[in-house]
Amino acid sequence: MFPNGTLGAINEIPAMLQQGTCDVSLIVTSSLMDLCPEMGVFDLPFLFASYDDARTTITGDVGKYLSDKMAEQNMYVASWLTMGFREITSNKPINSLADFKGLKIRIQSNAVHQDIFSALGASPTVISFSELYTAMEQGTVDAQENPYVNIYSNTYYEVQKYLVESNHVFQVASLLISKQTYDDLTDEQKGWVDAAAAYAADVEWEATKTDNETAKQGAIDAGMTFVSLNHDELLNATKGVYEKYAPQYGEMLKMMGK
């Protein structure tokens, strides 16, 4: 095992899996779009209503379709995992759609996320994750968005006042095995690996849900003011994002029944 990027940066790992120099890695779908552009569908806003909705969808036809696409890139999708919903923290109160107007919010480098927050009326700003805490501390941005686990573990409650449950993006990840590594296994060994990956997914989905709830409560206990937004209001405001990306993801959305 090579933790914390010691084997390579996240954008380098897919090529290593293709070449067989890395055997197995867990990678979020947004980091796989160069190899499989269809993975970008998961960045669309308010795509899933719950963990169960997301898992049922990703283990259905769309999951098989994407697994076949990844196989063309010499990678075997052993199972689908998640980091859960992305939420918002802010130093300004956010109680409704109107409060997003002019809000300086840090986002990762992602065109769809930029379109989401622009549609909400905010001013999205790309800042690297390593510089985010300082940017909030110095007031370079008013807000940021991440899963609860990241919010709590990075102590954003020290520099942000409001914890806003927006559920704007549900983050999906894949447990990938180099096709070269997988194909070298016997049929019996493949069965072991597939069973282990399926079990790992069951554990990981439940653990992610629990860990995010624990982190959410931890941030509240640390002094953050919790706000739950009207998701229907936000979804209506971001319909234009779906219209913009319909040529790219329309067929995928039909496959999902969305």
TrEMBL record:
One Pfam family, short name: DctP
An example Gene Ontology CC term for this record: outer membrane-bounded periplasmic space
SUPFAM superfamilies noted in UniProt: Periplasmic binding protein-like II (SSF53850)
Domain of life: Bacteria
Keyword terms of this UniProt record: Receptor, Signal, Transport
Entry keyword Transport: yes
UniProt keyword Lipid metabolism present: no
GO biological process, one term: transmembrane transport
Family statement: Belongs to the bacterial solute-binding protein 7 family.
Protein name: TRAP transporter solute receptor, DctP family
